[in-house]
Amino acid sequence: MLKRTTVYLEETEVETLKKISFIQSVSMAELIRRGIQELCKTFSKEQKEALSALGDIKDGAKKAGITSKTAMSAALKAQKEARRERKAVRR
């Protein structure tokens, strides 16, 4: 299922996207989706595991009646705290 979103781009990026879209005969949205898919292919194992964990958190929150926004906010807060702790250990 596709979900609508808004992306802000520089004028030059929009023009480039339009040209590529014309040349390849696909929509600009399709090009953006392909770009995201290519980006995800470059993720490390750790990054892929993090994406999976966030998906699990979102699903668990939904079952518990917690909004996705609240769950993701809590997950990001926990991630920042973990990063702070790792930095402190390295010092």
Give a description of the structure:
With 91 residues, this protein is mainly alpha-helical. The protein folds into two domains: 11-41, no CATH class; 45-90, no CATH class. The chain is 78% helix and 0% strand. It has helices at residues 11-24, 28-41, 45-64, 68-90. Helix 3 crosses helix 4 (68-90).
Question: What is the topology?
Answer:
Elements: H1 11-24, H2 28-41, H3 45-64, H4 68-90
Helix pairs in contact: 3-4
> What is the element string, with H for helices and E for strands?
HHHH
Main β-sheet description: none
> Structural class of the helices, strands and pairings?
mainly alpha
Report the C-alpha radius of gyration, rounded.
18 Å
Low-confidence stretches: none
Q: How many beta-strand segments? A: 0
Task: Give the helix level as a range of percent.
Answer: over 70%
Report the span from N to C terminus: 46 Å
Shape, principal axes of CA atoms: extended
Helix count equals: 4
Percentage of residues in strands: under 5%
Number of domains: 2
Query: What is the arithmetic mean of pLDDT?
Result: 90
